[in-house]
Amino acid sequence: MEPATYAVDPQPTGPPWRLWKEVGADAAVRQGVFAPVYSVSFGARNRIVIAPGDSRSMTLIPDKCEGYCQGVDGRAGPNLACEGCGRAVATRMDDCGMWQTVWLEPDAVARRSSGLSAGPSPDWDDLERAEYRVPPVEPDGSWSRRWEAAVGVALAHLVAVTEDRPVSLPVGLVAELLGHAVGRYLPAGPGVRSVGLAGPGIHLPRPRPDVLLVPRHPLTGAPWRPPGDEGAVVPLDSGVWAYLAHPGEASPLPATGVLPEGVLRDDYPLPPRPRCPLTPHHRAFEDTLVRLPAVRAPRLRRYREAYRQAVSPASAG
User: What integer pLDDT is reported at residue 51 of this predicted model?
Assistant: First the structure.
């Protein structure tokens, strides 16, 4: 989370966890899970996530600080208590492989105004601003963790709307960055479904592709849709979509005289690049797919079983 921002997860998250074989399909569906998983969360809905640096007046509960490596993973439930009353109010998570977060329990905290004036709410227009774009590569030359998660989520939606059928990506940046991932998660062959990039500030492809790759609203998370359009869409993280739609790349044409703004000199080292193609975060893909009702269709049930066998044969028991 960016400083001074928060998000709310409407789905149950965190402990207590109950095994799928004890819960059953009907109870799992009520928790928003539509396919068999090892365990189902029966934690609170509408938990609020903030950046750890924005937390105040909380202290760790020592006997609830379990973790695998050099941090805490929240497995025992809330591990932060109010300094004033001692009530457990939040869960700090910062173990290896986790984004550092603090999750506030909705029934243990109350919203209070800071007295400061709030800035304007983000809207679709923000996606065209250069500072809103999320680059796919980190300064150290590795793939952006946000991109890995965003592509995993988008691929789950793409698998669902195409029902595990081949797709063709638009030529250019979308194909260059997402082509490897799509090739790993979807088959090749006949019956190809076309995918196009659409959203605010760019023209809708004509004819309309079978599936539109669109941004989520930067505030509500709702997917963008063309007016009056009810066709298939795949939502994508708004900052990642903004980079694909408005990359701001410098022109490859030769320039004379003073170098235009944004043109890089060729006598400096090239920026670092990842050594391998962009690979989606498999947990982001799996957790999203099981929460889509379409996964109950026979074709997608077979797809998921094959995927689980490929990722971890023991997990498909």
Answer: 95
Say which DSSP state 115 is in. Answer: S
**DSSP notation for 24-82:** -HHHHHHTT--S--SEEE---SSEEEE-GGG--SEEE-GGG---SSSS---TTS--EEE
Q: Phi and psi (nearest 5°) for 285? A: -65, -50
Query: What is the 3-state composition of the chain as percent helix, strand, coil, each rounded to the nearest 5?
Result: 30, 15, 55
Pairing type for strands 80-82 and 6-9 reads unpaired
Which pTM was predicted?
0.86
Other beta carbons within 10 angstroms of residue 63's beta carbon come to 8
- 37-86 pLDDT per residue, tens: 999 999 999 999 999 999 999 999 999 988 888 889 888 889 999 999 99
Main-chain phi, psi angles of 156, to 5 degrees: -60, -45
Strand partners, 50: 6, 102
Token pair recorded at residue 90: 């939040």
Could you tell me which residues come within 8 angstroms of residue 186 by beta carbon, excluding any fewer than 6 positions away?
158, 159, 162, 164, 165, 166, 167
